[in-house]
């Protein structure tokens, strides 16, 4: 077992950290206030190869593996604890990979080179108004085949990047029901462009955090797509989506680790200087013991996350693991990292006192941002528990199994 980093990985971490600390960190409050990631940051990410970095070189990506992707996610989370830039990164890294893996050559050639250059957005659209995690039971979006086209009708909500997609162009990988009688075997994936597409009506939500990237939804009324906008096999969309969710969950784990480490570092610098009753507050066990617990929790999250990333790399490179193995590891990382990051930030806020409750301090952005990852992004915490139990016990013990 080797818990070290290769020279290439260390160089990559340094490159991402240098960029993120110099170009992103000083502008996080600006992004949170203005509700937008500046074009210069997007351009810089593209030049460094951070946008959809898991996409193959043929389409402008760097073909990065998942450990390298997690290193980038961790460093972006460390710089932007509001989580806006990391959301842009991880959505495109996870779902760009799925599109590259399963999309048609015609559709990939049209969109992926623009995504990797920061000229288009690529996202995921699975959640619907009737339910979030219950994809099989709640999905109402339907598709019909007419001649050489697909006709989509339905609605998606709580989708990242709706405004960006409308402004930049791009696609959202959209899950739709194609065989109502087949359960989870009756879904297909489609590349749906929002910009200038007849029948698309967007909606927007104002999130409490990660304000630099938009959240919204869109309705589809007789949206007409070319036949080659089908992503992957017909009626295999559910499986493609689950593969993408596992990838996204691992990157969420890395993002939360980076953001939590940044908060704890801020906190440790503060408690060494802050005096109370004639001594630095770092001298008191009431500060030291929670610090020890939180640092241990985040270190365990890091190990879970990078193990899951390593397993993904081994699965794709050598077939050493099946997807259910990766799903288990990814769910464990997603179950723990957001909760521990949120808890660590709350603790550090106590150390700073009233200052951390103001917008003069970045901690309040972090608390608002990482909370999104436990509420529902890429699956709620209870869904992670269901996935873990399913993989440990077998699907016949699922509580919702008919």
Fold blueprint:
Layout: H1 7-24, H2 28-34, H3 39-48, H4 66-79, H5 84-102, H6 105-116, E1 121-125, H7 135-138, E2 142-146, E3 149-160, H8 162-168, E4 170-177, E5 187-192, E6 200-205, E7 215-226, E8 230-231, H9 237-273, E9 275-276, E10 279-280, H10 285-318, H11 323-352, H12 363-375, H13 381-393
Parallel strand pairs: 1-4
Antiparallel strand pairs: 2-3, 3-7, 4-5, 5-8, 6-7, 9-10
List keywords for this structure.
402 residues, alpha+beta, Butyryl-Coa Dehydrogenase, subunit A, domain 1, Butyryl-CoA Dehydrogenase, subunit A, domain 2, Butyryl-CoA Dehydrogenase, subunit A, domain 3, 3 domains, 4-stranded mixed beta sheet, 4-stranded antiparallel beta sheet, 13 helices, 15% strand
Characterise the protein shown here.
- The chain is of the alpha+beta class and 402 residues long.
- It has three domains: 7-120, Butyryl-Coa Dehydrogenase, subunit A, domain 1 (Orthogonal Bundle), CATH 1.10.540; 122-231, Butyryl-CoA Dehydrogenase, subunit A, domain 2 (Beta Barrel), CATH 2.40.110.10; 237-397, Butyryl-CoA Dehydrogenase, subunit A, domain 3 (Up-down Bundle), CATH 1.20.140.
- The protein contains 13 helices and ten strands.
- It has helices at 7-24, 28-34, 39-48, 66-79, 84-102, 105-116, 135-138, 162-168, 237-273, 285-318, 323-352, 363-375, 381-393, and strands at residues 121-125, 142-146, 149-160, 170-177, 187-192, 200-205, 215-226, 230-231, 275-276, 279-280.
- A hairpin with a 2-residue loop joins β9 (275-276) and β10.
């Amino acid at each position: 077992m080797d818990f070290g980093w290769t020279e290439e990985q260390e160089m990559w971490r340094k490159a991402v950290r240098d960029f993120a600390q110099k170009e992103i960190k000083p502008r996080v409050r600006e992004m949170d206030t203005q509700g937008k990631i500046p074009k210069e940051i997007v351009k810089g990410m593209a030049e460094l190869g951070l946008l959809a970095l898991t996409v193959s070189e043929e389409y402008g990506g760097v073909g990065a593996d998942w450990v390298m992707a997690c290193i980038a996610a961790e460093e972006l989370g460390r710089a932007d604890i509001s989580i806006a830039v990391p959301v842009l990164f991880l959505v495109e890294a996870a779902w760009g990979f799925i599109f590259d893996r399963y999309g048609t050559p015609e559709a990939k050639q049209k969109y992926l080179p623009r995504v990797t250059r920061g000229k288009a957005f690529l996202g995921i659209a699975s959640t619907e108004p009737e339910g979030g995690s219950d994809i099989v039971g709640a999905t109402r979006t339907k598709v019909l085949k007419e001649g050489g086209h697909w006709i989509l009708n339905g609605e998606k909500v709580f989708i990242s990047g709706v405004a960006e997609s409308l402004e930049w162009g791009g696609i959202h990988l959209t899950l739709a029901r194609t065989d109502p009688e087949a359960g989870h075997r009756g879904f297909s994936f489609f590349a749906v462009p929002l910009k200038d597409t007849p029948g698309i009506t967007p909606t927007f939500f104002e999130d409490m955090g990660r304000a630099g990237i938009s959240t919204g939804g869109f309705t589809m009324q007789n949206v007409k797509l070319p036949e080659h906008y089908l992503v992957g096999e017909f009626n295999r969309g559910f499986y493609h989506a689950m593969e993408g969710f596992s990838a996204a969950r691992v990157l969420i784990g890395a993002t939360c680790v980076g953001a939590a480490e940044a908060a704890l570092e801020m906190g440790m610098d503060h408690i060494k200087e802050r005096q109370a009753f004639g001594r630095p507050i770092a001298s008191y066990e009431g500060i030291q013991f929670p610090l020890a617990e939180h640092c241990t929790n985040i270190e365990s999250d890091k190990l879970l996350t990078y193990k899951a990333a390593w397993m993904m790399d081994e699965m794709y490179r050598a077939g050493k693991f099946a997807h259910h193995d990766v799903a288990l590891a990814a769910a464990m990382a997603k179950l723990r990292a957001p909760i521990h990051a949120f808890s660590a930030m709350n603790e550090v806020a106590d150390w700073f006192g009233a200052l951390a409750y103001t917008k003069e301090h970045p901690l309040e952005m972090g608390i608002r941002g990482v909370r999104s990852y436990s509420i529902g992004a890429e699956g709620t915490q209870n869904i992670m528990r269901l996935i873990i139990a399913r993989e440990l016990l077998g699907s016949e013990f699922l509580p919702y199994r008919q």
